[in-house]
UniProtKB/TrEMBL annotation:
CDD domains in alphabetical order: ExoIII-like_AP-endo
Keyword Repeat: no
SUPFAM superfamilies: DNase I-like
Record protein name field: Exodeoxyribonuclease III
Species assigned in the record: Luteimonas composti
Cofactors named for this entry: Mg(2+); Mn(2+)
Protein family: Belongs to the DNA repair enzymes AP/ExoA family.
Any one GO molecular-function label of the UniProt entry: double-stranded DNA 3'-5' DNA exonuclease activity
Domain spans labelled Endonuclease/exonuclease/phosphatase: 4-248
TM stretches of this protein: none
Coiled-coil region(s): none
Keywords from the named record: Hydrolase, Magnesium, Metal-binding
DNA sequence: ATGGTGGGTAGCCCA
């Protein structure tokens, strides 16, 4: 089964793209970020018509996350990070089949040293504590989402710009990601790929996509128990070529039975 | 160093 993550940058605008992509790619599970929709406006009927059930947790204008599953029940839904007060709708978890799915829209952080950057690091620490507990009860886990962190120099188009001191690549952010991986999680893409220059996000400005000036910040992490089952992982650049696209492309992992 | 583009929303914030 294929499990994907996609920051759609407004589901209201991108529902036609999501529809097209669900029909062509046919993922089994999808985590969406930046839906930017309050729950009553979530298009669950339109997705159901395509065969996808959905659970979601959104707000007006900003943030918003959802989990979709094709012809499968979605159980044990967790909205937000347990015990962490947060007005921003950035986390949702649920069980599909025998796999626990955790979908994260990690804080962007604006700039190193800002108040939002502090919130990003606190938020990531809350996620770490949550996942440590979650993994005990759900060893078969996929943690996916827009991490707003490029793991290493291979994941940025220009390492002389994107390094310590820069948001999305600062040492503290990368260390926070490493602390998540240290729980027993693995970047599925890097289980099979060592190449640099494969990205999931390209700025809308300066023709960044055409010039492949991107970052790999959308990740699918698999737990120790699923590591051997994660037989393939990639990023589907195609929706980024469509008219009026999201600035992110879907990242996905395929789990063998 | 700045500002470039896009989304949501109603004069800006956020990415």
């Amino acid at each position: 089964m294929r499990i994907a993550s996609w920051n759609v940058n407004s589901l209201n605008v991108r529902l036609p793209h999501l529809t097209q992509w669900l029909q062509s790619f046919a993922p089994d599970v999808v985590g969406l970020q930046e839906t930017k929709l309050e729950d009553p406006r979530f298009p669950d009927d339109a997705l159901a018509a395509l065969g996808y059930r959905s659970v979601f947790c959104g707000q007006k204008t900003y943030n918003g996350v959802a989990i979709l599953a094709r012809e499968r029940a979605i159980d044990q839904v967790q909205y937000g990070i347990p015990g962490f007060e947060d007005e921003q709708k950035r986390a949702i978890a649920a069980t599909v089949g025998d796999v626990r799915i955790v979908n994260l829209y990690v804080v962007n952080g604006q700039d190193v040293g800002t108040e939002k950057y502090g919130y990003k690091l606190r938020w990531l620490e809350a996620v770490r504590a949550w996942l440590a507990d979650e993994l005990v009860r759900h060893p078969r886990m996929v943690v996916l989402g827009d991490f707003n962190i490029a793991p290493d120099a291979r994941d940025v188009h220009d390492p002389t710009v994107w390094n310590d001191g820069h948001i999305l690549t600062s040492a503290a952010e990368r260390e926070a990601l490493q602390r998540l991986l240290a729980l027993g999680l693995h970047d599925a893409f890097r289980l099979h790929r060592e190449d640099a220059g494969i990205f999931s996000w390209w700025d809308y400005r300066q023709a960044a996509f055409r010039r492949n000036l991107g970052l790999r910040i959308d990740l699918t992490l698999v737990s120790d128990a699923l590591r051997a089952h994660a037989v393939e992982a990639d990023i589907d650049r195609e929706p980024r070529t469509w008219d009026r696209p999201s600035d992110h492309a879907p990242a996905w992992v395929r789990l063998s039975a």
